Amino acid sequence: MFSLTVNGERREVEAAPDTPLLWVLRDTLGITSVKYTCGVGECGMCTVLMNGNAQRSCVITLEEAAGSTITTIEGLPEEHPIKQAWIEQQVPQCGYCQPGIMLQAVDFLTRVPKPTESQIDQAMDDVLCRCGSHARMKVAIKQAADTLNGKQGG
Ligand code: FES
Ligand code: FES
Prior knowledge:
The protein is of the alpha+beta class. It has helices at residues 21-28, 62-65, 81-88, 98-111, 117-124, 134-148; strands at 2-6, 9-13, 47-50, 53-56, 69-71.
């Protein structure tokens, strides 16, 4: 039995220690916003925050995640500047990639609160969006950064 805190709630999980966190979240806990695509840590669709850091949950085992605090998109407050900017810039198209990408953006802005455009480009280049929302997500990240830094507008 392993325990972890998911979106503020302590959860007990009975599964093999090497079960990927992705499957624990989706299959055991029913959090299907965490998406499966490549399964090998390449695309970013399965990204969650683990103790505040973006992690690709397909390559983290339950044993590694035990005792940590996990945040999925449901655990990000509605008023968070990333969520607000995503809505205002109408970033999603099909939406499949967006939870993981938004959480990667949250982690990025925590580490780099005042990013340049090229830092944003670099930070988001390793996430896959097959609908081509990259241009809008970069505008939204700039807007969220400005909001977090107390500037008006985008
Ligand atoms: S499904 Fe985890 S990085 Fe692609
Ligand atoms: S919005 Fe469709 S895959 Fe990104």
